TrEMBL record, chains A, B:
UniProt domain Tetrahydrofolate dehydrogenase/cyclohydrolase NAD(P)-binding: residue ranges: 209-356
MF terms in GO: methenyltetrahydrofolate cyclohydrolase activity; methylenetetrahydrofolate dehydrogenase (NADP+) activity
Matching Pfam families: THF_DHG_CYH, THF_DHG_CYH_C
The keyword DNA damage belongs to this UniProt entry's keyword annotation: no
Organism name: Glycine soja (Wild soybean)
Hydrolase recorded as keyword: yes
Identification of the protein by name: Bifunctional protein FolD 1, mitochondrial isoform A
Physiological role: Catalyzes the oxidation of 5,10-methylenetetrahydrofolate to 5,10-methenyltetrahydrofolate and then the hydrolysis of 5,10-methenyltetrahydrofolate to 10-formyltetrahydrofolate.
SUPFAM superfamilies, A to Z: Aminoacid dehydrogenase-like, N-terminal domain, NAD(P)-binding Rossmann-fold domains
EC number: 1.5.1.5
Signal peptide as annotated in the record: none
Superkingdom of origin organism: Eukaryota
Assembly with partners or alone: Homodimer.
Positions of the Tetrahydrofolate dehydrogenase/cyclohydrolase catalytic domain: 73-188
Length: 361, 361
């Protein structure tokens, strides 16, 4: 008996609804691509999603190599634009309902970097009119202390988002802490049910983790086509690597996840059109890891000693910027790239949550 | 200021505990590899996990190409061995507690393939001494009818696993149905909380979906090293593709997921040491898609017309077997490869569940 051969193209025709197939042909069409991106509950703000031309005004490095222009994405500028739209929506909510979104942050211990991150988040909340509350707990507190703090916020109707600043001191069971956050207020998207719903096709998580959500927002706003492209995610953390790979897959990229056991990571990365690096290893990704014209999103923010800086240290990305900027078509700097987007996405998730809870559109 | 360069190797040394690093050096050592595999709640039966030499007795095709022997994995034989061990454990439980594991199956509609699958599962239960109950519902039933059937089994203390045979008729909301299965009895592992816990590093799902679990079991039993190897999963279904990619990542493979939007899938697949194909497209994976010496696990079971067969049709895999068998080092046939393993893993999950609920070790 002869072989039954069904080509991949026939398979596509059979399996992909006509609308999607049609959109698939709109290669390079930014509006087509944005419309086509799978709907994400946490990215459903039309005022944030609409394609903007703001990235045109971002400082760009023009270079001669390969006659290509590298766009350095200004995360600060883009996040400011998003934040101003969130602020407008918050004002609208206050006017209409007499209520504003509320974010509760729980900070355990005295880590300087965590304190800085929490301070930045609180300041960002204030700026857009989101109410914020911080509960600080001592390093040696018990897991029940953290859980109790969470429970109080779970019950508080003025709070729409609860965030536990990670990492926790080692003696605290992260799983027990994160599971205490009620699903409807899990604005970090770290609850396993939110992660499961992010992974499962046809389901929608209530929240998408802020950093990977910011990465995708940067890619889409820069006109990077994701569908069908090869994407490499470096790092498998629950906070960035895992949800970034799931999000890129939702946008129909062909995703490879690279980690410490990967053989020849440089070779695999050098074939990718999109690189999202979240390994936490300064200068891991060298220029020769990058395919010419690739989009490079650097999530790394590792503190490294630097006597020249005010605090004696600076934040270093995973990507060797000086080398990569000569090869990539789009790149994010550290600091000032993904970082500000993470905070903007947190505000966005908190606003989304308040809108859902208060039935405000 | 000079660049701070941390090599990947240094990163490994910093991040990977000594025990794992030591085991990482045991390349090709099967026992080392099995010990090293991340613990999975659903794969914790020592009598199933212990490396066995059964695959040595599997009929193998010896061929001259590249002086390499291709092992054709006999899923029936391997699953029989697993089932006999499950049967022994069930007898032990019956003797010790006077109770046996119980599986409830819900079948909606008249699909012939679904009826066959359910019949096979029930027969397998009987064979190992697991009690089974089947609820059949008409095609046009309401979602509440299915939910009510599930609720009854949720409350029934003699039932330790509940399985809803998929696919459901189109008018029924799969999400609403699957979410009704209580987490502790979700032996299919399709609940989003189980999937989230499978995805999140450091967490353990109560159950791992049966088919991908069977694929990994086949790989490990055949001595295929997974850690650090390039693996390609073809297909993104919630039942196979997604959990297979998550499982392979747990075993530290470098995983790429291929789907209908992937460009040059044959080129990407041809670089993989391990191929798990679950696209449902007969003969999609041709011989030239396979890297010489790769392990090929074919999950496809698409009914194709065949007047020569008793029922007028036969099940076809995704892999063009006649071509692939000449290139791969290990391959599963269709039928008789992954299929019987899926049923064995379902029994395994049901036994695990009963052991956990009845506190029996």
């Amino acid at each position: 008996m002869g072989l039954v051969t069904v080509t991949w193209t026939n398979y596509l025709k059979k399996r992909i609804p006509l609308r999607i197939r049609f959109l698939h042909t709109l290669k390079g069409n930014q509006i087509g691509q944005i419309l086509m991106s799978p709907p994400l509950a946490s990215l459903d703000l039309p005022d944030i999603w609409s394609p903007i031309s703001s990235c045109r005004s971002i400082p760009a490095i023009h270079k001669s190599f390969n006659e290509q222009t590298t766009v350095v994405l200004d995360g600060k500028l883009i996040s400011m634009e998003i934040r101003s739209k969130i602020a407008a929506k918050v004002r609208q909510m206050k006017k209409g309902l007499g209520k504003v979104p509320g974010l509760a942050v729980i900070l355990v211990g005295q880590r300087r970097d965590s304190q800085t991150y929490v301070r930045n988040k609180i300041m960002a909340c204030e700026e857009v009119g989101i109410k914020s509350l911080v509960t600080e707990l001592p390093t040696d507190c018990a897991v029940t202390d953290v859980q109790n703090a969470i429970m109080r916020f779970n019950k508080d109707p003025s709070i729409h988002g609860i965030l536990v600043q990670l990492p926790l001191p080692q003696h605290l069971d992260e799983e027990k802490v994160l599971d205490a956050v009620c699903l409807e207020k899990d604005v970090d998207g770290f609850h396993p049910l939110n992660m499961g719903n992010l992974a499962i096709r046809g389901r929608e998580p209530l929240f998408t983790p802020c950093t990977p959500k910011g990465c995708i927002e940067l890619l889409i706003r820069s006109g990077v086509e994701i569908m069908g492209k090869k994407a490499v995610v470096i790092g498998t953390s629950n906070i960035v690597g895992l949800p970034a790979s799931l999000l890129l897959q939702r946008h129909h990229a062909t995703v490879t996840v690279i980690h410490a056991f990967t053989q020849n990571p440089e070779q695999i990365t050098s074939e990718a059109d999109i690189v999202v690096s979240a390994a936490g290893v300064p200068n891991l990704v060298r220029g020769n890891w990058i395919k010419p014209g690739a989009a490079v999103i650097d999530v790394g923010t590792t503190p490294v000693e630097d006597p020249g800086c005010e605090d004696g240290y600076r934040l270093a990305g995973d990507v060797c910027y000086e080398e990569a900027v000569k090869v990539a078509s789009i790149i994010t700097p550290v600091p000032g790239g993904v970082g500000p987007m993470t905070v903007a996405m947190l505000l966005c998730n908190t606003l989304d949550s308040a809108k859902r809870m208060l039935n405000f559109s």
